[in-house]
């Protein structure tokens, strides 16, 4: 008898039929003798609807009050899921994030889990209850409800699996597993049987919507195998684990992220410490920066360009504009009609020519590259947003990723 954590996304609990389907899956594990924890997201588009309700009242509400509002979506889901399991004749209890002992820092709307007090969870599991926990939320030192950011239910599930030393953590979603590209963009994308934590982390960070990147970080840290599978069928999913294959895939997948903007700080004085000034200002505001490009200094000045998420664009511009005199720059410009397209693969580190092949695919498709970023297992390019899907298809075809079978070979 072990502990199993199952997470169901918004589409997997969107209506009565789907809630009962998820409930039966949880019961199936319970009947095997396992202790079962079910983590659920808000139903369907509930979170978006709540955001719209907020805008009707206040276009710029505080993040604390938004957390108070958005956390109600998951509270609805856990109650309905518990009612379904109850209806099917099994012992169950629903818990909000704070009732489940999930303690976070105080970064409202994007909080991080600090610790989980498992006493209540263990007590309920020992009573042989199926425990249904609200994803995406916790409580801070001020006893305020906090949320973990979009996709935070994945993080909740993995954190609970780590805290409870669970035997497995299953992430149920609306796709059959992890694909070499988004099947909605590339219809002939291949499903991978397994993928490494590092590759999955890069894909999640770079725009693949299958898993939240912080959940993959946690899974890697605590060595928790994740299974990504569909809640709509019984097809075997993709296992995310520490893959030690002798022959790692050259390229495992192509990801696209349209939720980014490019910011350029123009005419910065070409002296030491200016980049530090700019990025320390953003770090203080908890703004993540991705691709960075610094031009060669001319006439004692240089330009520094970088990307941020669109949700952080206004705050980024406000911070930099307010401190323009401190930075010593001439101007701040931005573009929000850009996209980042990336390839990821653990085999790239030992194979020269991968970047050239990617750039050739973009050249053949007539797509211009604005910025480039590389690491040992990924290459990202910034391009015009209108070319994003064409770029993904061109790169996917160039690397013949459609020929990968479900064994990932």
UniProtKB/TrEMBL annotation:
Involved pathway(s): Amino-acid biosynthesis; L-methionine biosynthesis via de novo pathway; L-homoserine from L-aspartate: step 1/3; Amino-acid biosynthesis; L-threonine biosynthesis; L-threonine from L-aspartate: step 1/5; Amino-acid biosynthesis; L-lysine biosynthesis via DAP pathway; (S)-tetrahydrodipicolinate from L-aspartate: step 1/4
NCBIfam families: asp_kin_monofn, asp_kinases, PRK06635.1-2, PRK06635.1-4
Top-level EC class as recorded in UniProt: transferase
Job description of the protein: Catalyzes the phosphorylation of the beta-carboxyl group of aspartic acid with ATP to yield 4-phospho-L-aspartate, which is involved in the branched biosynthetic pathway leading to the biosynthesis of amino acids threonine, isoleucine and methionine.
CDD domains referenced in this protein's UniProt entry, alphabetically: AAK_AKii-LysC-BS, ACT_AK-LysC-DapG-like_2, ACT_AKii-LysC-BS-like_1
EC number(s) stated in the UniProt entry for this protein: 2.7.2.4
Superkingdom assignment: Bacteria
Lineage: Bacteria, Bacillati, Bacillota, Bacillota incertae sedis, Caldicellulosiruptorales
Domain ACT residue range list: 263-337, 343-409
Keyword flag Amino-acid biosynthesis: yes
SUPFAM superfamilies, alphabetized: ACT-like, Carbamate kinase-like
InterPro entries per record: AceGlu_kinase-like_sf, ACT-like_dom_sf, ACT_Aspartokinase, ACT_dom, AKii-LysC-BS, Asp/Glu/Uridylate_kinase, Asp_kin_monofn, Asp_kinase
Name of the protein: Aspartokinase
Alphabetical keyword list: Amino-acid biosynthesis, ATP-binding, Diaminopimelate biosynthesis, Kinase, Lysine biosynthesis, Nucleotide-binding, Transferase
């Amino acid at each position: 008898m072990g502990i199993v954590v199952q997470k169901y996304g918004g589409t997997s609990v969107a209506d009565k039929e789907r809630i009962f389907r998820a409930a039966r899956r949880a019961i199936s594990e319970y009947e095997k003798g396992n202790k079962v924890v079910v983590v659920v997201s808000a139903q369907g588009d509930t979170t978006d609807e709540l955001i719209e309700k907020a805008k009707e009242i206040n276009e710029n509400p505080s993040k604390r009050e938004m957390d108070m509002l958005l956390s109600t979506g998951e509270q609805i889901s856990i109650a309905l899921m518990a009612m379904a399991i109850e209806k099917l004749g099994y012992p169950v209890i629903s818990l909000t994030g704070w009732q489940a002992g999930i303690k976070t820092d105080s970064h409202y709307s994007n909080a991080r889990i600090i610790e989980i007090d498992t006493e209540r969870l263990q007590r309920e599991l020992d009573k042989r209850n199926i425990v249904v926990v609200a994803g995406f939320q916790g409580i801070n030192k001020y006893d305020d409800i906090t949320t973990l950011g979009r996709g935070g239910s994945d993080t909740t599930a993995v954190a609970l699996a780590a805290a409870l030393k669970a035997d497995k953590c299953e992430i149920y979603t609306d796709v059959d597993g992890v694909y070499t590209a988004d099947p909605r963009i590339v219809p002939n994308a291949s499903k991978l049987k397994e993928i490494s934590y590092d590759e999955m982390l890069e894909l999640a960070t770079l725009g693949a919507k299958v898993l939240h990147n912080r959940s993959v970080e946690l899974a890697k840290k605590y060595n928790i195998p994740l299974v990504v599978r569909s809640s709509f069928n019984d097809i075997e999913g993709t296992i995310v684990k520490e893959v030690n294959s002798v022959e790692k895939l050259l390229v495992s997948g192509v990801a696209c992220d349209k939720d980014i903007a490019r910011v350029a700080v123009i005419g910065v004085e070409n002296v030491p410490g200016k980049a530090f000034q700019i990025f320390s200002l953003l770090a203080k505001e908890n703004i993540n920066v991705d691709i960075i490009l610094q031009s060669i200094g001319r006439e004692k000045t240089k330009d520094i360009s970088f990307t941020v998420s669109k949700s952080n664009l206004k705050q980024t511009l406000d911070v930099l504009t307010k401190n323009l005199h401190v930075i010593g720059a001439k101007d701040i410009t931005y573009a929000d009609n850009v996209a980042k397209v990336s390839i990821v693969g653990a085999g790239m580190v030992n194979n020269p020519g991968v970047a050239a092949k990617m750039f050739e695919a973009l050249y053949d498709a007539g797509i211009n590259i604005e910025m480039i970023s590389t690491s040992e297992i990924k290459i990202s390019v910034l391009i015009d947003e209108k070319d994003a899907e064409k770029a993904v298809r061109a790169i996917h075809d160039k690397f013949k990723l459609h020929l990968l079978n479900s064994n990932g070979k």
